[in-house]
Amino acid sequence: MPIKAEYIWLDGAKPTKQLRSKTKILADGQEPPTWGYDGSSTEQADGSASDCVLKPVFTCPDPIRGGDNVLVMAEVFNAEGAAHSTNTRAVLRDVAEKHTSHEPLFGIEQEYTMISDGWPAGFPSQGYAGPQGPFYCGVGVKNITGREIVEAHMDACLKAGLKLSGINAEVMPGQWEFQIGPAGPTEVGDHLWVARWLLHRIAEDYGIEISIEPKPMRGDWNGAGCHTNYSTKAMREDGGMAVINAACEALGKNVDKHLEVYGAGLEDRLTGAHETASFKEFLYGVGNRGASIRIPLHVSQAGKGYLEDRRPCANIDPYEVARVLIETTCG
Ligand code: ADP
Ligand code: MN
Ligand code: MN
Ligand code: MN
Questions:
Q1: For labeling, which of 31, 77, 146, 194 is most exposed (least CB within 10 Å)?
Q2: Structure confidence at residue 126 (pLDDT)
């Protein structure tokens, strides 16, 4: 039986890259080969020299098509064989390779909003839901919308072998979260991008749009983030607290560099309200959900573990976020 290989890659859309994919039929047992596509249709090339190259970097079972079918995450190269300027994974690979001795690990909390007919699912049609409060981790039809999609997505991620570590309903109605990790620098990005692709794809079957806008609803509604939990080997070992504090100090000296890759539109989300710190200030503290960086209580009690950078928005490119965290704290 021939194999359907769904090649997934990132386009050149600005300011936020989008997912693209297409199918290649492989012979039974064939490894996914290098492939190509029309880069002039993805903001990655001119029509006169439009060919871009796809090199497979991560392959997993396709939980939707089942059987021996696979999902293939690919990096983009130009016709001359160089990494494409939009290939942020290639840049991360180089940085991560220099710092393997630090054994960095990442856990990313992907928040997202289900949209039905242009309006958050869970809000009355073109009206507003009651005030936030009962929805976070809620149960029952008054509080919850879209659980069937969340369950289908969770099963799909597990069948694909992704490092999914959990899901929860979020503070705004129609808003949910899944977590990927702990995983290494390129691995967390590969798994997060494939999990996002699966979410968009599964939601198609329900006629639901998945938004990763940082602030999908203006007003007194929580935005959507990608809290990034991060540790190095030294942070996880005895005496790790001092290393975590030093990392927070270093992060405070590199605010602009980080905000540059923490998601387009972050000013609308990082206002200082709704469990965020303003993007204009930098704060870190134990258990503080109004800080830029939170050190979880259990980490402070154990004296080792990890930190949570709460600034990255839902629409980040995880390859870029992993890169700057390593550069700032392992340099
Ligand atoms: P929150 O309390 O902020 O909602 P979550 O439980 O949603 O936290 O997410 C915590 C994330 O931290 C998970 O993805 C988990 O895998 C990750 N994590 C746990 N330990 C580490 C570690 N040592 N380094 C990096 N990430 C970690
Ligand atoms: Mn969480
Ligand atoms: Mn959350
Ligand atoms: Mn969090």
A1: 31
A2: 84
